Amino acid sequence: MERFHHIKKVINNDENLVKRFTRFFELETIKFDSFAKENVYYLDFPLWLAEMVDAGQLSAQQASILNKKEVLQKFNEETVKRLASLLEGKSVKDSERAIDQLLHFEPEVYNVWNFPNCNPLFGTDGYPGRIPGQIVQNVLYYYTNENDLVVDPMAGGGTIIDVCKLMNRRYLAYDIKPIEKDGITEHDIRNGFPDKTKGCDLIFLDPPYHNMVFDFFETVDDFYSFISKLAQNCYNTVKENGVVSLLMGNTNWKGDGFQDLSFQCYKLFIDAGFIPIMRIAVPFITEQFERFDVERAKKEKEMLGLVRDLIIFKKV
Ligand SMILES: C[S@@+](CC[C@H](N)C(=O)[O-])C[C@H]1O[C@@H](n2cnc3c(N)ncnc32)[C@H](O)[C@@H]1O
């Protein structure tokens, strides 16, 4: 009964809700109090949002973006809370785009994933090599469960962290040059995985490839020996039946011609003891090339690379 009075108070405080509910109960024969009991969360939501605004965790505009029937239908209470905390500090425009994308998010059913842009909720704006968080969302959807431990040893702008927070996975994220973001620890993966990663459920690998690869490796052989050691270390770290996902593009190595990095890496992971369980095409978008690149490539009979693979391995 106390709850019922509380709900009534909430509704009375919100003019729009009063109108909506009055109209609704005129049309429906069900009793208000039985309805209210079953829908406490829905009725409480505007009040909870108002509290978040008072606490400075959401702006009033962000609260109104979240205050939608679709949000409550798509996400449970815990997820909405995590979502709200991820919105902290985001602009209204980015918040709108992020929520819109999440409302439309469905796991990819085919093994070709096209993501033309990054969900603003995940990762760091302008970080070189930032990937769309939608890639991580799908990997975690297919290969992990809530509370699983996910490790990203080359976390860059921390896309993995934001997706793990939303999807309620535990995470450990490292980078050789960590940016200032909570949760990324400085660590050079060439020295192996930190002890506390042992027995993790999934390792997400997004190493330097494409043009970034040249910032880290002198020769293509240096790159392959890095991946070979990484594959062995992954094998010794991930739990039995655990999963490793590797995102890898191909490259034209310093003018020495096409290097099929993903194909070579695929072999190195098998050598380390893994079995491949899925290969997904995650192409780059054409917009990354300037008109000038396109014209030059045509003239010089050189194809521009959009192929990128996401290879999923299992330790058996
Ligand atoms: C492609 S970026 C990762 C981008 C990230 N997934 C994101 O969405 O922001 C590759 C990252 O690997 C890191 N890296 C390169 N060599 C490393 C090493 N030996 N140990 C740890 N991190 C390394 C780089 O600093 C870079 O941030």
Task: Tell me what the structure shows.
The chain is of the alpha/beta class and 316 residues long. The protein has two domains: 2-103, no CATH class; 133-315, Vaccinia Virus protein VP39 (Rossmann fold), CATH 3.40.50. It is 46% helix and 16% strand. The chain has helices at 2-12, 15-27, 32-38, 40-54, 60-66, 69-74, 77-87, 92-103, 133-143, 159-167, 213-216, 220-237, 261-271, 291-299; strands at residues 149-152, 170-175, 184-186, 200-205, 238-249, 251-252, 258-259, 274-281, 308-315. The strands form two sheets. A seven-stranded mixed β-sheet has the order 3-2-1-4-5-9-8, with helices on both faces. Strands 6-7 form a two-stranded antiparallel ribbon. β6 (251-252) and β7 form a beta hairpin. α4 runs antiparallel to α5 (60-66), α5 runs parallel beside α8 (92-103) and α12 (220-237) packs parallel to α13 (261-271). The longest helix has 18 residues, at 220-237. The model has no long low-confidence stretch (mean pLDDT 88). S-adenosylmethionine binds next to β2.
What are its keywords?
binds S-adenosylmethionine; Rossmann fold; 16% strand; alpha/beta; 7-stranded mixed sheet; 9 strands; 14 helices; two-stranded antiparallel sheet; 316 residues; 2 domains
The portion of residues forming beta strands comes to: 15-25%
- Using only C-alpha atoms, the radius of gyration works out to 24 Å
Main β-sheet, in a few words?
7 strands, mixed
Name given to the CATH architecture of the largest domain:
3-Layer(aba) Sandwich
Q: Let me know the average pLDDT.
A: 88
Q: What small molecules accompany the polymer chains?
A: S-adenosylmethionine
Q: In percent, how helical is the residue content? A: 40-55%
User: What sequence of helices (H) and strands (E) makes up the elements?
Assistant: HHHHHHHHHEHEEEHHEEEHEHE
CATH class of the largest domain: Alpha Beta
First-residue to last-residue Cα separation? 55 Å
What's the helix count?
14
* CATH homologous superfamily (4th level) name of the largest domain: Vaccinia Virus protein VP39
